[in-house]
Every structure is written in C-alpha cells, then in structure tokens.
Amino acid sequence: MSATARTSVSPVGGSFARLTGPLVILSLVALILLPSIWPSSYVINILILAFIFGILATGLNLIFGYTGLLSFGQIGFFGLGAYLYALLTMDAGLSPWFAMLLAGVGAGFVALLLGYPALRVSRASFVIVTLSFTLLAALLARNWVEVTRGPMGIPKLPAPSVDLPGLGEFSGHDPRVFYFIALGMAVVCIGVTYLLVNSPVGRVLRAVNLNEPLAASQGISPKKYQIAAFSIAGILSGVAGSLHVAHLGIVDPSIFDPYYSEMLLIIVIIGGPGSLWMVVISSFVFMVIPELLRMAPELRMVLFGFILVLAAMLFPTGVGGYLEDRKVALWRRSLRS
Amino acid sequence: MFRMTIAATMMLFAAHSAVAQDKIVIGLSTPLTGSVAALGQHENWGASLAVEEINDAGGINGRQLHIEAQDNQCNPTQGITSVENLLQNDPIAVMGALCSSVTLAVMPIMERAERPLMVGVATSPLITEQAGVGGNDWTFRINPSDSGLAVALGNYLTEMNTIKTIAFVGEDTDYGRGGHNALTEALKGKGIEIVSADFYKQGTPDFTTVLTRIKAAKPDAVALYATGVDELGFIRQYRGMNIESLLSGRVSLDELLPVIQAGALEGATSVYPYAVQLDTPENKAFVESFKTAYGELPNYQSFQGYESVRVLADALKRSKELTPAGLKQALKEADFASVTGGNIKFDDHNQAHNLALIVKVKDGVIVIETMSGT
Amino acid sequence: MEFFTQLVINGLMLGMVYALIAIGLSLIFGVLEIVNFAHGHFYMLGATILAALVTSAGIGFFPGLIVAALAVGMVGYIVYVVLLRHFREGEFDRGIILTIGIGMVLQNGVAYLFGSSSRIVDTPFSFVSWDVSGFFVDAQRAIAVMVGAVAIALLYGVLTFTRIGKAMRAFAQNREAAFIVGIRPAVIAGLAVAIGIALAGLAGAALAPVFAVHPAMGAPILFKVFAIIIIGGLGSLPGALVASLLIGVTESVVGGYSSVALQDAVAFILMIVVLLAFPAGLFGKGIRV
C-alpha cells in the first residue's frame, strides 16, 4: 500500500524509545530558558515560527504519516483558522483565546465536511480534492471582499495575553511573551497528538494504513477513522493558523501561499512520516535552513526541490524511517547472535 | 539533530555581526523569489544603482553606503523574518516592502526597533492612515497614494469629454482593488460611470472571456490596473481582439514599447507616477546608467528604489547625528528635488506628494500629456 | 445569442488547449499511476524553449514547435529513466513528492538562469485575426488549437493502430496481463511518460506567442488540469478530452455572463459536484484504491 507505512509496534523498546522522554523534557527546558539566555528578537521570531509549523506539521503527519493520506488541504485549514481568528476578534469582538479555540473547531468541522467527498474514490483524488480546497479557499479570501476585506487584508489583529495572578497581565504583542504562548500551544497540540497516536485509535489508524481491506475485514470502518483523523489534523492546522496571524498582526490571502504547502511537505517528508518527534525536530531545522540560505534566495527554492527529489528517491520514509530501519536491523542482529 | 540546529543558528548569528562597522547599512525587504520577483528585482536594482552613484560621489560625509536586500516573497511571514534579519545588521533605515500586506506587517516591528521605514511602492491607503500622526511615526512613504493618482486621471478623462462609460479590470490585489475604490471615488459627480469591474488572480494567462464581454459591451474606455506579466498579457490580447474602447487606467506604457511601436494602443491614456520619457536631466542620467548597468529600461519599481535611497541619503547628509532618530528628524524636514521634477516633502502623515503624470500614446510614441500634484 | 456563440467558440478553443495538457497528464497516470505535479512546469519549459528559439536563435515558429516538444519529451524520458523507473506499483505518494521536487527545480532553475521577467514571442500570426461568419477568431490561438488537434489525432492513431500503442493501452488496463503477453514494461512506461510530457511541452510552445512566457506560468494551469482529469476520470484519455472541452466552455460562458472570479472557481466547483454524483469521474474506470 503506502510507502510511508511504519511498523505499528516497535520490535524493541530499545535505547531510542527510552531516551525519547528525557530528551523531550530536556529540550523543553532549554526552550523555556532560551529567551533569557539569548534575547535576540530575530531568534525568538524564528522559534515562534518553528512552534507554529511544528503544530502544522504534526497535523499533516497525523493524516499522512499515520493514516497514509497525502493532504494538500492543511494550508487551506491553516488559512481558514487564520481568517476565523481575525473575523471573530475584529468583527464579532470575541476574546483572542476564545477565537483561537473556535478557529480550531471551525477548521476541524470543515475538514469533516470535506473529508466525505474527498475520500469517496481514491488516494489520488483525495490529493487533488484537498489541493483544490486550498485553492478555492484562497480564491474566496481574495474575492469575498465584504467579509474578508479581500487582498487589502485585515491589519491590527489583537494577540492573546496572559494574566498571571500576582504578576500582572502580559501582552502577546510583546514577542517574548508570544514566544511562551506559542510554546505552550505547541506543547498542548503535539502532546495531544502523541497521546492519540499511542492510543488504541492510533493503532487502528496504522492498521488501516497498512492494509485497508484487512482492517475492514476485522470490522473496522476505515473511512470513519480516516475522516476523524483528517478532522483532527484540520483542528491542529486551524489552531496553528490563528496563532500565526496573532503573531503577524495581519491576515491577507497570502496566508494560502503554495510556498507553505511545499515547506510543510518537505518538513514531514524529511522528518519521516509517522515519526512524531522527528517531524517536530524537522520543523525547527526547516525554519532555520531558509535563514541560512538568505544569501541566495533564488537558489534556495532550487535546493529545496532537489531535497524533495533526493528524499523521494533515497529515503522516502525520512530520517525517522531510517532510524526505525536501523533499529529493526540491530534487533535482528541481536536475535541472531 | 537538535544540537545541529542550535549550532547552525549560532553560525548564522555570528555571520551577521561580521559586517563592516564603518559602512552605513540600509536594509531592503522586497520579493526576490515568487510570483512578483521581477518587480522586487527592479526595486533592488534601482536602489543598488543609487547607492553606487552616491558612494562614487564620496558617500555620506566620507562614509560609504551599503544596501542589504532580503527576500520577503510578498508574504507577511517572510516579511517579518526578513526585517528581523535585516535588523541584526544595525541598519540606519529599512526600505520596502513592495507589497502592502507585508508593509503593514513590518510597520510595528520598525516602530519597536525605532528605525525609519521608507515605503516606495506599496499602495494601500492604510499605510498612510497609520503613519505619522496616525500613530506610527517611523513610517515614511514617497509614492503617491491611489487617490491622488485616481483624481488626476478622473480630471483628465472628464476634460476629454468623450468618455462616459468605463469597464474596470484589475488584479485582485490591493493594487487593483485599491485602484478601483479610488477611481470610483474620483469619478463621483463627473458624469463618468464605471459599468463593470473584474478582478482576476495574479498569474492569469487568459483574458479572452472578459475581453469578449468588453468587446460586446463597448464601453468608452477600459481602466486597467495590472502589473508585470499580467499587464503585458492583457494588453497583447486586448490588441489582438481589436477592441475599440480607449485603453486607460494605471498602465505602465513604458513596458509596452514593442506593442506601442507596432502602432497599437494609439491614444491610450494612463496615469502613472513615473515615465522613462520624463524630460529632466536627472531622469535622463538615471535611465542611461540603468540601461548600461542592467540591460533593461528602468520601471516604476526601479525608479522608486533609486529615489528611496536618494531621499534617505539626502536626509542622512543633513542629519545632525547619524542615528535612526537623527535620520527621522531630517526626513521630516526633507525638501528634496525628485527625479520627476516634483518635490518630496512629507506631510503630517509622513506621506510625500510627488507628481502624477498623464501619459499618452500619440503617433506611436509615448508622450507626457500633463503633470499634476497628488 | 451571437455573444453566447462567441463565448462557446472561445471556450472550445480554450478547452483544446487544456486537453493537450490534460491528456498527457492522464496518459502518465494511466500507465504509472503517478499524478505528475511537474506537468505544468514542463508546459512552462516548452514555452521557454520556444521563446529562446524564436527570439534568440531566429528559428521559425513551426520548426521551433517541433524542436521544443521533442526537447521537452527528451527531458521527460530522462526523468523517467533516472527517477520514475525505480518506483514500484502503488508508491503513489512517492511519485507526488518526487514530481513536486522536479517542478520546484524546473520553475526556480529557469528563474535563476533566465531571470523572472516575462518574455514575449512574436510570430507572423501575432495580432492577426480572422472573421469567421461574423465571429472573431484569433489566428495565433487558432493555430495552437490546430496543433493540439493534430497532436491528439496522432496520439489516437498511435494508441489504436500501432503495436506499441496497443501495448500501452493494455499496460494501463492491466499490468499483469501486459507482462504475460511479453511487453517490456520499462519501454512502454518510458515512452508513455515521454509522450505525455512532450504534449505538455508542445502546448507550452504553441501558446508561447499567445500568453506571456515566464517561469511561474506552469502552476495555475496545472491546478485547473488536475480538476479536469478528476472530472474526466483519472487515467481516461477520452474523459480528459471531453472534460477539457466541458470546462473550457463552462468557464467561458460563466465568465462571459458573470465575473472573472467565478470563472476561476468553476473548474473546482464542478469537480466537487462530479465527485459527489459520479465518484469515478465521467469516464472513470471504476474505483481504484
């Protein structure tokens, strides 16, 4: 079936798995301390983007890596969440936090509606239908001027603020505060996905991905699970989108830029579809690499193209998949000796 | 892997602090990749040419200028990152960001960093609204507003006395939408009616359908607000279909020279902030050296890049201290002779009012019909 | 009524252009089950090569057409031999990722080498138009349509009457059966990819004098053609042709009576409707997983 199918249960609970927990906690501590050690607004801005893309990439990873469905709709949900946030705060006067929640729910609901026609035929048509959804959403954002203000965009968006008892209120318009808001949201979103993929539901998703007819014969209804996963991925993208425009302070139709779709795909492919943590790390790496390549902007995109070609040819399961294979090889060797 | 990321970020940081201290850095955030890369490229060329000329003439009180351009892909996200990156090099000011949405996203950052932002191309009226007494005192804009240009065009078309109906076609960006709003406003009470308005997506190759509709409706004029590739494509198809309506709007006739020399577009009348044909010594010198340096004629974006740097350099020479705050004060007192022959003086919204040119095709050549303030 | 007829004529002409691109895309999908995301960029490559040949090398338009199509087809064949050949059946996602990568390299590579400014190609037919019983026909566009019609007719001939063409169709319908009758799959698939990509290059070359030529021209047309092959049924060549004409005419008529914005949305909306009513497309071969 899909080239991205990962083994559902690790053959060994080996050193990798045991180290994951401490490494995640260590990285988290480092990220919490970082702004006080290195207070560069440039670095903080890049890390905020990495948190947001970490959420977005985890969403695509859930639908592509675990369920095996390649979705180009994630940027559509990202933009939808962004616009919902903007309209709910600016026009409906809701609080930023509540708007962020509704942006996620709204995007998830649209994913639910889209999932049905998209999954009717084949994986190929799923790809094209989700792609078309993103294009249509962009068209709507540009042309439904009465609501979206069209290409002029909606500037001066509010940012959520944090009220700490005894310490006072911290405004999210300060990048250092927003850093912690984005970090917190990333921890929650990625944490929930971690729990989900390691739950019985996660195992069903992998089973459906590995062998859909077999899973169906076991009384599992694949479509239901696929649509549910697509919808959860939609929620994650919607939340990421609302977070993103709260940081930018403006939303306009360029939120649907195909560049994001390409970046997102590279992040998940190189990280390894189905490897939760590797994709998160990959989000950080691919927010930094374009910055390193700022000297040659035209060549940057050529290089990204080559990265995708090489990845598809040499290691379609990404770094995560490569590590998994190594693990299996080690396990086999240890059994032999 | 994670350690690698940190190491890479540190390297990046180190590389940036290595820029020579004695140069005065001006940042430029503009699209160098993506769908409007060609426009950003021209802005960068114009700016680099001005820097070269100023340095050859002795720089700013003996110190050399240095322009550092960063790609923003016409996207607010990349815009913010590019400006944060530029700010690492301690620029005295930043120019940009070509696209309105990017400019609006960048304005608060420049305000926080307390450095002037020099806007030369972005058209959204919101930029001027928010600048100066509007709240953001660090944003300055030298390109005339949409409404200034539209009023000039509206007045001219009214005086022509032959135009009663206009079909509007624009790209679905702030350029097209903003142009439509401004023109509608400018034509109020003048007896000219906009009978249809179409907004197409940037990069649309085929205009047959809307042109067929226009051909059948026979408006007196077509007002086109398009840029770059789309403008060229539209004009070629417009010409191919032998439409009799007068071509008007905000058309960069300069970039259509081959079509015009072939005898098409006779009578086309456009409002534009710049034209290669401008008969001032400064402009002739600019066009000449631009052609020598880059092998293409300058366009509106290259002109604004060139002019932005010159306005900044003029202010730097006058400013008492070479700091962003000193520069801001000097900009506020600017009274600079533009390449167009107009004057750059900023009002209380930090908006300058350069000339609006009415450009016309007469006997296969482009002539500047009138000039007016905006 | 006259206006309506003119719109339909425009639509059919536009549809033929879509068809040339869509048929190539559908052919590749039929044989390899790969959705070629680089297809639009091969269209751009064809246009770029023709522009270079006509404006810089001074070669005539018609010889230029043939050279451009052959050159792009050659690139397509190399892509097959070096990259696509190594894919196994069902590695559908890998194919998409690979072709997206190829597309990015093509688009940005051309931008890097030749700049992002647009190029104009003038031929003796530029700005010539014909009056066909009161209706307006642009000569250059009519030539593109005729080139498309000839190419499609040739392809039909090859697929129907030659041994290799029959093999191609057999291969698309049933891989195992094709093995049994002793057809070498690599030859068939390579040829199908080369032909499919050459058609995209030919479309680009034929349209270069009609539209402005620039590195980003591939993406918008590709997305539309995706919707077309879904409507026609993935892998079905007659479906691709009919759906192309259908979308061309619908777009033209909708755009003629409403707005450009709605014209842009027509293909996508129609696609969703068709998927709800006929999940396998109008000419679908049935459900694939």
TrEMBL record, chain A:
Protein name: Branched-chain amino acid transport system permease protein
Domain of life: Bacteria
PANTHER family, alphabetized: HIGH-AFFINITY BRANCHED-CHAIN AMINO ACID TRANSPORT SYSTEM PERMEASE, HIGH-AFFINITY BRANCHED-CHAIN AMINO ACID TRANSPORT SYSTEM PERMEASE PROTEIN LIVM
Localization per Swiss-Prot or TrEMBL: Cell membrane
Membrane-spanning parts: 16-38, 44-64, 69-88, 94-114, 126-145, 177-197, 227-251, 263-289, 301-323
Topology in the lipid bilayer: Multi-pass membrane protein
Alphabetic keyword roster: Cell membrane, Membrane, Transmembrane, Transmembrane helix
Hydrolase as UniProt keyword: no
Pfam family, one: BPD_transp_2
Keyword Transmembrane helix attached: yes
Matches recorded under InterPro entries: ABC_transp_permease, LivM-like
From TrEMBL, chain C:
Cellular compartment(s): Cell membrane
Alphabetized Pfam families for the sequence: BPD_transp_2
Keywords: Amino-acid transport, Cell membrane, Membrane, Transmembrane, Transmembrane helix, Transport
Transmembrane portions of the chain: 12-35, 65-84, 96-115, 142-165, 186-213, 225-249, 261-283
Topology term for the membrane: Multi-pass membrane protein
Domain of life: Bacteria
Coiled-coil spans in chain: none
Record family assignment: Belongs to the binding-protein-dependent transport system permease family. LivHM subfamily.
Protein name: Branched-chain amino acid transport system permease protein
Source organism: Aquamicrobium terrae
Source lineage: Bacteria, Pseudomonadati, Pseudomonadota, Alphaproteobacteria, Hyphomicrobiales
